[in-house]
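Troubleshooting: if your tokenizer reports a length mismatch, compare your output against this known-good record of 308 residues.
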Amino acid sequence: MSAEFGLLPDATAVIEMAAASGLTLLPPSERNPLHTTSYGTGQLVLAALDQGAGTIIIGIGGSATNDCGAGMAQALGVRFYAGNVEISEYMTGGLLGQITDIDLSHLDARCAIAIRVACDVDNPLLGERGATRLYGPQKGATPSMVEQLEENMRRFTALVEEKTRPVRNVPGAGAAGGLGAGLLAFLNAELSSGIDIVLDACGFDEHIRDAALILTGEGRIDAQSAMGKTISGVLKRARAHGVPVIAIGGTISDDADVLFEHGLLSMFSICDRPMTLEYAIINAETLIEKAAERIARLFFQVDDGPPA
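Known-good structure output:
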């Protein structure tokens, strides 16, 4: 498949890992984190370096992978061995458990440039809130696959930390199937809040200074929305200016009420009647617009005047 990245006038490359390794690129029948790889993300980094990038920003949301960034690193020259044999296949979550040695000597030297990672979650790499157990099922992992992937990643992480630096407990290391940890370990990248990078770039604080209401949202509003994702980032900035926030989502889970503790005024679903997921996705723009209007009418007490 083909994928694109942006190159800004100041030689900053902007890469979205989901453009090459994203879950939406695969039909549900092909989603299997034992077999998916972040190799394509590494190819985008390589292409950016070939274009003369002096700084790289990588967004790491929406991945189909659970390979701890091994595929990405492989594309950039890192070599992985099972015994004395180099693994020539694209690195996947299923292959992590076979690795017994890592050779960093062939890593592209240009990777020493500043690399900033836009990460919207604070999950560690391993454990109940880690890459595999929390996000693996969303990527097609069955319960037995989750156990295998977790064990593979645990063994791989121990080897990586021997060769590079501690990464497993860094907030955000578990993002994108462990790509956060891989970028930290192999490219010495800096993990930053993805929403903060975006809000800073668009001058968000200045825009909301005199605002009466902020509307934000996600596809699914749940407890994870409070873990450094878009809604929580917006809430943090809004509190500093005393501006109320209402969230709009496709679905609202039972545990989403935790967002009220973070200052969210209320939340609404775009689904105004029984509908299939496919219908909601296809008509999302119209449904969001209608939901936003209903909220605005309630909040601002819109008066359309007397009936004709």
